[in-house]
Amino acid sequence: MSAEKTVILGQTVRRLDAVGKVTGETPYPGDINLDGQLWMKQRFSDRAHARVVAVDTSKADALPGVVRVFTAKDVPQNEYGLVIKDQPVLIGPGSSSQVADADVVRCYADCIAVVVAETEAAAAEAARLIEVTYEDLPAVFDPLDAMQDGAPQIHVNRPGNILCHYKIRKGDMAAGWALADVVVEGEYRTGHQEHAYLQPEAGLGYIDEQGRVTVIVAGQWVHEDQEQICHALNLPEEQVRVIYPAIGGAFGGREDMSVQIVLALAAWKLRRPVKIVWSREESILYHHKRHPTVIRAKWGATKDGKIVAAEAMVIGDAGAYNYTSTKVMGNANLCVTGPYEIPNIHVDTYAVHTNNLLTGAFRGFGGPQGAFAAEGQMNKLARALGMDPVELRLKNVLREGSLLSVGTPLPPGVSIGQVVEQCAEQSYWQRDGDGWQRPPTPQPDDPAIRRGIGFAAGFKNVGFSFGFPEQSWATIELHGDAEIEEVIVRHAGAEVGQGTHTVMAQMAAEATDVPLTKVRLISHDTAETLTSGSASASRLTFMAGNAIRGAAALALERWKNEERPAMGTYQYRPPKTTPYDPETGRAEPNFAYGYVAQAVEVEVDVETGLIRLVRAVSANDVGRAVNPQLVQGQIEGAVVQAQGYAIMENLITEEGRILNPYLSTYLIPTVLDVPDEVKSVILEYADPIGPWGARGMAEMPYLPLAPAIAAAVFDATGIWMDSIPLTPERVVAALREHGIGVF
């Protein structure tokens, strides 16, 4: 190792983007302008479900300052979608699309036209002047109703509005129930959640110096954005370029298209720069949300605490289009029985179309919904058995060689047992000769305040699942003469605020044995990089690290052979995964996992129903903490975001329309809501195939918080609350129903 080298893996170093973001010098998409740019506004649907009979743009065209109005007939291949291309870019007559009924709006977020004008105000006014003639169609807004015979059909090729149905059939359910001494049942409901990222959707389209249609935008995978633009505009890849500046948060909300395709369309047709910036209201109204779910669960255990049977039905509201629903609900299907070895399992999971708002990726990706039900069942079983919830978990957690619900063992490196133990030890639990026990919770002097403690655990995949091709490219260039003077890293992985570019630089420094100051990263530009895969699935550290390490090894070998500069390009491909068997669910779903457990303390005001999260202890196996402060930041951020999901964030909809599209009425946690303490317990049980042992971890601390809070509310009040968010109104109603809080 070089004597000059001072930065190694496992050390906290300052983020590469820290100074620019703190000082405001770093540009986000909405900050970037070009001379002579035009402005764009979009005209969205006025109906939840209707056929667009005609689009009259004459008044908009005549408005001074309007340059062009684009409608469906202007899009060469009028369709897009991350997993399935089932949504028109613009909806109306004259569409060239493989989507059946491409003239039908299926939700209020469908776009009918875009206006380009000399000013933003003119574009906005022109969008309002567009006259749309609709033929109303029957709509359905409850996924349970949408599954019934005779329900309005949203897509003609998806009978019963069922987008997908996953099954898990393991063991012998009759034998399992026969062994059960205790059976608990529950129906769990989870709601929508808004991503509420810092930078609303914004971007700039133009023609670059090489004649390429170029879009500057915020996203999570530049090459996937490029592919969808190319498809919709019927352009070859080399004629389209996508660049991300600073992104301003994502959390899955930028995986699907927003302004990318229409910006590219306008720049391509007009040969002038075109800019768009959504308002916060537009952002909340028109980008996708977390899937609401209804989960019915029934679990059985023997009197000594061995879980012997579990059944579940999971119904997720997929909204009008697929987005990532097939993948999200696939993950919920796996997570709904938790990180436990259960010999007999029967699960049915559905993604169901409605005319509600769009739903798609959000941090945890189906895992939080599944964990809410699984951990709720575990806590109810512990209560029914008179057993400590930590002790019950440790009797049932997955171990090395354990079979998942899908009938195959986990990849090596299973650590959920150690994680549960460490969380218990670092929080409220004590271990003696009788196992794990928690002392009674001291209560406040104020009789209106009840204090409670809760526990939950979880696991989640690292990387793409269920047979989806997974890979990551990296290129390393070594420059210098006798010594390496500069290491240039080309990797397209998106920096969405999580610190991934800093981690990539650290890993490149480690792999090439140079100080961090010699590393320069080139990223976020399809013209400069090969595809990296998405900033999602807790995968970037794992995938980028392995790609960078492979590229560095190739470059160093060439450096030794006196090549100057020395270059290595490497594609990392992890072990293959397989999809669910359609009848049994058998699969090898993932090549790596992360594991988490959390203990929380809450106070419930029984007069107002307000829940205060006092303390959270989060134990996380990260494999190797490349940058411990960034890991801590991910844990704290996940806890607070999940806190919002669990007790605050109540998106109100009526017949497909959002009624509170403002941050004044849709409440997210602020600094005043953060718990008194978030204790980050960073554990490092190396993943056998992770780079330097590292696992992904960004989503994992999100998963158990809601069920841990629900368990703590039960501990405080004696009431199980199985629907989130636990808003004061909902809590008060439950308390009054049980005669609590009336003094």
Secondary-structure blueprint:
Blueprint: H1 18-23, E1 38-44, E2 50-56, H2 58-62, E3 66-70, E4 104-105, E5 111-117, H3 120-129, E6 131-136, H4 143-146, E7 162-170, H5 173-179, E8 182-190, E9 202-207, E10 213-217, H6 222-233, E11 240-243, H7 260-270, E12 274-277, H8 280-286, E13 293-301, E14 307-319, H9 325-335, E15 345-353, H10 367-385, H11 389-396, H12 416-425, E16 430-432, E17 435-437, E18 449-461, E19 472-480, E20 484-490, H13 500-512, E21 519-522, H14 540-560, E22 566-572, E23 593-605, E24 611-621, H15 628-647, E25 653-654, E26 657-658, E27 677-683, H16 705-717, H17 728-737
Helix pairs in contact: 6-7, 9-10, 10-16, 13-14, 15-16
Description:
The protein has 743 residues and is an alpha+beta fold. It has three domains: 18-27 and 471-572, Aldehyde oxidase/xanthine dehydrogenase, molybdopterin binding domain (Aldehyde Oxidoreductase, domain 4, 2-Layer Sandwich), CATH 3.30.365.10; 32-137 and 212-276, Alpha-Beta Complex (Aldehyde Oxidoreductase, domain 3); 293-465 and 582-737, Aldehyde oxidase/xanthine dehydrogenase, molybdopterin binding domain (Aldehyde Oxidoreductase, domain 4). A hairpin with a 2-residue loop joins β16 and β17 (435-437). α6 (222-233) crosses α7 (260-270), α10 (367-385) packs parallel to α16 (705-717) and α13 packs parallel to α14. The longest helix is centred in the last third of the chain and has 21 residues, at 540-560. The protein is globular, with a radius of gyration of 26 Å. The mean pLDDT is 96.
